[in-house]
User: Fold these one by one.
Assistant:
Number 1:
Amino acid sequence: MSRPPTFTPPEGTLAYRLRTARGDFAVLDTRPTGEVKGTALLLPGFTGSKEDFIALLRPLAAAGYRTVSIDGRGQYESDGPDDESAYAQAELASDVLAQAAAVREPGDGPAHLLGHSLGGLVARAAALLAPATFASLTLMSSGPAHVAPSQQIRAKLLTDALATHPMDVVWNAMQAMGPPEDADIDGAELRARWLRNNPAQLIATGKQLCGEPDRVDALAALPLPKHVVSGVRDDTWPVPLLDEMARRLDAHRTVITGAEHSPNTDRPSETAAALAAFWDSLAPQ
């Protein structure tokens, strides 16, 4: 779980519900004050939300990029049905294409797609469905296939618990098992976010994390610039696995010093600089 430094949007950021052909989605939308070089669509990970990118919004806007972070269906402030089938990966990927179409405005430049962790799996599925929609794809701490065995065990424990217990009971159990030093970090806001997730979404996407096939070759075949970003350590997808995935994709590779599974919250300034530099490199010379 990414732990954002705050749940309060920064100055200049609009929080609203984005209307799309596939429903409404809660977003945080930050525009540059000057020229817009491009628009970045940011997809959060498992148990996360649009606020996971909150520390990136102003730096990316300062670099010239309109930045829109999104709660997917059933995530935090976006509604979703109580049916696991509604959260099939193809459904989530189709949502992303609808979001990209709804966000796009004249003069906003090319659309860059970024997904963190689970969001990376959804992002690559969207790119495979309609690669011409995006000018680039960034996979942040998101690997080639299913998560590491230790994380599969954790995900299965969580999804099994969610199938039989209320969300608040599961939250209390998670906190009891978590490291003591995490007990007082934004506890009330993190709990409030957790309780607003639809359990069907968490169960369905938790299963996806455990069963995701390797789709790297199919993604590599797309004529789409790619960027693989991670911290120096990652328990969900080991860093050497991400290095190898980047090689297979012929992707630009960035390792953020001092960061682990969530460079977006661990080292936001450095992460924003790396993202903007990659997108800048794609601009016509």
Number 2:
Amino acid sequence: MDIVGACQAFVNVSERGSFTLGAAAARIPQPVASRRIAALERRLGARLFDRSTRRATLTPFGRDMLPSAKRLVRLAEALEYDAERAKRTPFRFAVPDVCTARDLAHLDAEARRKDIYLDLHPAPPARRTELLRAQEVRAAITQVPPDEGAWSVPLGLAGVAEPRAQKVYLETLRAVRTHEPAGRRRVWIQPEDDVPHIRDRVNRIRDSVGLQPAQVAVSGSLTSAAAEVLGSSDFLLSTPKEAAELGLHWRPIGEARLARSFDVAAGAGDDADRIRTLLRADIARCLGAGDEVAE
């Protein structure tokens, strides 16, 4: 039996001296209140109300049981209140700082519809890992090696001029082919891609095609990297979505297929699975996963 529901009916009927009024106060039909109280009486082994009068009068046993029933009802109400408050406790979540404010707002709004109240902490990859390790956040979107993540975002080269070919080969940046001073044209790596499995691979391609070391450079921010590209013939290593937002033309790299691979990491419990499952599509939108190349 629902002992909490039965006690709620018992307390409401006793306070109002009427099964009809007590049922209305408990927001249940009168027959349901009567059945619940009858079930409670069977459970406790004695009558709670004297049914020989028109009013709902407590028996001596009912008067003795009423204080305990009230305590149980108050505890149940406190439990429901605490559960609601716990669900509204901000979920500290580290996300890539390349996610736009618009996409993060949509992610936050969708999470609230699913009773998850996010406290978002945008940060570059190393900082997200640090926040999680220090338990300053409950979970973080982290970069993982290729093919190990829940989300994959293609990387390519974005520049001001629209390339004639469908791919951009790094070997075309060699000074002998571009007729420009050595090291003039560069590929800028933004902080989100300053991770070993992306940065080191670009550097290996650079070395294999004969570019100078300075022709691949790591920038301190996406903004500064984009500024370098917008004012020159350099390229930005970026996703199609980032290129479109910056008004740049994007092409995949000819020598290799590069991608950001993301997953959710959490300190404990099922937080990672919960976020990954409930917010999968919204996180994908923030990361630009699945976006087509926009020209």
